[in-house]
Amino acid sequence: MSTAKGEDKKVTTHTLLEMKKRGEKISMLTAYDFSLARILDDAGIDVLLVGDSASNVMAGHETTLPITLDQMIYHASSVVRAVKRALVVVDLPFGSYQGNSKEALNSSIRIMKESGAHAVKLEGGREVKDSIERILSAGVPVMGHLGLTPQSIYKFGTYVVRAKEEGEAQRLIEDANLLAETGCFAIVLEKIPAQLATRVAQEVKIPIIGIGAGAGVDGQVLVLHDMLGINHEFHPRFLRRYASLYEEIKAATENYISDVKSRDFPNEREQY
User: pTM for the complete prediction?
Assistant: First the structure.
């Protein structure tokens, strides 16, 4: 059973490994600001991912590529200040680690020093092995990310399910094992067949956290704004909405506008 609300025992990378060993599922959501991160932490979430999806849901970009390292550090700092229990993982943004392990290390050190986060996440398999090793050499925990890797969207050309063909599936299995052997503490698998994701979770000793990867993995992650229905136009098959905040916020705003226009707000009790 997951640590209950109100308990202050912090979630660590070791905690996640122990959860996998005893069969307890890991809950993970994205967070980008202090106020919402505090609510999620109070609710008992295990992991908060300061995702480069902030580029989409916070800044309005079409892809995750435009967000910068400085912007990721800003979001991460806000989240860290809110959190008492959850493990805070921060995405390394596009261009801050690919093809240059020294830059990957420098980016990771900046994130850890300037935000106070607990770990970093990066996309890719064998092609980022050198970067992972260099980051780990500085004592920074690394979470991997395989399958659909949004920073490579222009290479894929589409957000369809990955690793449906045998060759790509085998490469993903090999990459997952490689990331585990290299020292990653967990891996996110995005939008791959459930059967393949289950096989990876069974073969690899570290926790496997899925998004659109079925129920056979060790945990689940969703983008907060999707899960809460703030992004009301996004309807992927893997998404379950737990609220409809777009409609609720819109209705509340309409009521406020109406009360202001009709001079109902503020009333006598709402002034000094």
Answer: 0.94
